[in-house]
Amino acid sequence: MFGAAGLVGQNLVLLLQEQGFRDLVAVDKHPANVATLRRLHPKVKVIEADMADSGAWEEACVGAAACAMLQAQIGGEMEEAFRRNNIVATERALAAMKRHGVPYLVHVSSSVVNSMARDWYTETKKAQEALVAQSGIPHVVLRPTLMFGLFDRKHLGWLSRFMRRLPVFPIPGSGRYMRQPLYARDFCRIIASCLASRTTGAYNITGREKVDYVDIIRGIKHVTGARAAILHIPYTAFWIMLKVYGLAIPNAPFTTKQLKALVTPDEFELIPWWDIFDIRPTPFGTALTETFGPGPYSDVTLEF
């Protein structure tokens, strides 16, 4: 499992162990999040390595029945980081899989490959998907929309922590930007289904419910009990705030590029993935409660 210490990886390891999968091997480069993965799952073999560099981590493919490719650079202000994590690391992983004869791959792409947005994340995810398609390895491509769930260090997880720490929560413009958020645990159930059935093809995995950004924020506020007042700020002023923040925090979790993507009017295809992969989708409100309400992992947070 490549990129196993992020949002999807942490949830996937948890789910696969619950479903009885054994001999899991997880590769990731983030020291703190790797440490969290090891602490939560002592029976999983965890390898800390930067996949953009050649190394012993490539031997994780030896004898593997399948691989899940999850690694991705999502945010940041350095183009090189996107190239290394989304392209170079993918090239090395695919080469290792072919060298050691791994027969199947689940590739987690992104809905942004079908988006009108043009940024480093979008372009490198398109290139990453093309590399997988050209690899010759039997595979399935899953393109999820915005995800949230346990261990979320970005997106809704970051927003929830921000909301609980400050008295005011700013929202750009009206906040009426339609999103189709996807619950990470549901997405991991799809991955598990693919691993079991060796599904091939490409699937756009979109959150079943359409929810405006401002209503997502209100839902998080309700579940967490945060007292922050929601304050609407003009888009330009919000952009300037993020730009200044990004200069101070090089690996900021929310950037001006992501702000632009937020307000881009995208509506993604909704296929009946719950029927295709034979799983029961979690209602959005229930997913928010499971994610941000009290539970055994509610105090576990990942780092940027």
How would you portray this structure in words?
By secondary structure, the chain is of the alpha/beta class. Helix content is 43%, strand content 14%. The strands form 5 sheets. A 4-stranded parallel sheet has the order 3-4-5-10, sandwiched between helices. It has a two-stranded parallel sheet with strand order 1-2. Strands 6-9 form a two-stranded parallel ribbon. Strand 4 (105-108), helix 4 and strand 5 form a beta-alpha-beta unit. The two termini are 20 Å apart.
Shape: globular
Distance between the ends: 20 Å
Quote the average pLDDT: 90
How much β-strand is present in the residues? Answer: 5-15%
Number of helices: 11
Helix proportion: 40-55%
**Rounded Rg:** 19 Å
Brief characterization of the structure:
With 304 residues, this protein is of the alpha/beta class.
Which features does this protein show?
14% strand, 43% helix, alpha/beta, 304 residues, single chain, 11 helices, two-stranded parallel ribbon
Produce the secondary structure layout:
Layout: H1 7-18, E1 25-28, H2 31-40, E2 45-48, E3 67-69, H3 79-99, E4 105-108, H4 120-134, E5 139-144, E6 147-148, H5 155-165, E7 168-172, E8 178-179, E9 182-183, H6 184-197, E10 201-205, E11 211-212, H7 213-224, E12 229-233, H8 235-248, H9 256-263, H10 273-276, H11 284-292
Parallel strand pairs: 1-2, 3-4, 4-5, 5-10, 6-9, 7-12
Antiparallel strand pairs: 8-11
Helix pairs in contact: 1-6, 3-4, 5-7, 7-11
